[in-house]
Amino acid sequence: MDNPKPNWEHFPHGADIGVRGADASLAGAFEQAALALTAIVVDPSSLDVKEGVEIACEAPDQELLLVDWLNALIYEMATRQLVFGRFQVQIEATQMHATAWGQPMDDRLELTVEPKGATYTALSVEQQADGRWVAQCVVDV
Amino acid sequence: MDTARLERRSECEWWIAPTGKMRVPAVIYATESLIADMDEKVREQITNVATLPGIVKAAYCMPDAHWGYGFPIGGVAAFDPAEGGIISAGGVGFDVSCGVRTLHTGLKVSEVEAAKEQLADALFRTVPAGLGSRGKIHLDNEAMRAMLQGGARWAVDQGYGHDDDLAFVEEGGCMAGAEPSEVSDQALKRQQDEMGTLGSGNHYLEVQRIAEILDEETAGAFRLTREEVVVSIHCGSRGLGHQIGTEYLRKMAITAASHGIELPDRELACAPIVSDVGRSYLGAMRAAINCALANRQIITHLVREAFAGVFPGCELPLIYDVSHNTCKVERHAIDGDGETRELYVHRKGATRAFGPGHDELPTAYQKTGQPVIIGGTMGTASHVLVGTGESETLSFSSSCHGAGRSMSRHEALKHWQGRSLVDSLASQGILIRTRSYRGVAEEAPGAYKDVDAVAEAAHASGLSRRVARLTPLICVKG
Known about the structure:
- The structure holds 2 protein chains of 2 kinds.
- Chain A is of the alpha+beta class.
- Chain A has helices spanning 26-41, 62-80; strands at residues 8-12, 17-23, 51-58, 82-92, 95-104, 117-118, 124-127, 133-140.
- Chain A has a single domain (18-140), classed as Archease, Possible Chaperone, Chain: A, domain 1.
- In chain B, strand 15 and strand 16 form a beta hairpin.
- Chain B starts with 6 loop residues before the first strand and ends with a strand.
């Protein structure tokens, strides 16, 4: 199963990198934000992802949930030495369950920069007037 | 930043008077030109810092200030626990105790030039750099906790370096008050294979030529001689520090309201120093400082090994090790009556810059003040300055830490291509070793402020005084 058409971008920040994902659903926006996170490290479309990792998060609100989600991915990336290229997210209120599929880091991949953590800077999770969800924050690198 | 909205007090000192919820003024030290290049976000962030409970005297920006998260990078603020002062994970940063240490090689530039390719390859082979690289040292949880308690002293006890190194590291190489029990299992796991690694982003290992001496007497005390070679290592507390920053930023954001703290923005998440979260963070953050000090000590050992393979007998004594993402308890005079108060000084992207006679300094630097090491980029100079007595009054004895970005990574990628940058630098005599050309493009020298202008502004404002200018010969990029 492939992720839907990429709908993520990076936005400028003085020292670090902003990640933004958009989709018709909140879960989709979280998946797209995760792709933007991976794109800090490597081109997500270049990955051959096979290994699945289960991730669960719960937070007081949707904004903190986004930060928790991205930080869970950063943690799994660092400790499992995987880069993730495909995501399936389910969100109910302020709880989420997800599967992230990744490829092991090795010398064949040109890995750019390590994300240190997702921050609360430029953090927002909003449903726009057209119904689309946009989820974003700055990631410290 | 619009200078019309600032009050100029002197050539390099600009004030923002308290308005709204600001408890103290904000003060920016920079030339008019550096201020003009600063993002308006710096103004927004430093005025937000000035609203935090228990802040003392003023919120300060160093000449290299730029838009960060929570505090601006290049931000300094001190808080008094007796006045409800806070401690902020965002005011320290994710890369706790990131810093620079500089080693003297005793080699002439001509000697290094003759073996430059061989040395570059040896350093690149010996010191793990870049994302995904792991060290040869694997620490179990017990060893990790000993490292978090002992810092660089632990590393020396394990055989990485010499006892003589420790006097030239802040805190004598071991931050007191570390509480490894406050560090989560996740943070320990993230660090278990990362000891002795540079990391990525703006971290580097650089072989540098001492190109210019501006203060002969102080340079002599620092053992800096023109046309000799030094090595600088820039890195921090790696995954452990990042995880501690992540966890405590969240805890502080969630508990701030229960402590009666009204945050102008969640990114300023903080907790009272006198609170369970505040105390717990302090213990964990100090453990992360020790992790960074141990990490730079291990890398120092690896650098010495690489040099020994090319230049047998080369010893590389440590000139100094500075940390520039910290919160430390220090005594400072505030009211002009000579009385000092115990304050929690946050330096985020700012270097401690104690002046002559400070009892924290090693005997060798008692007369001069401490070395203040300002890292540049792979294509531009770095600087060694010295702390001044004056900076005690100006900035709680703080100075700048680097060039500071003037362009986002996003923008840099549109302007530069990594491979051609590496070739261009090679044609200027600077050898780059990297695992990522895109990383090189993001770190392009042109994406940073003019580091010479930053060092000059630090000098002109009295934050520290210029001693020597270093230029790159070899850079291993993280």
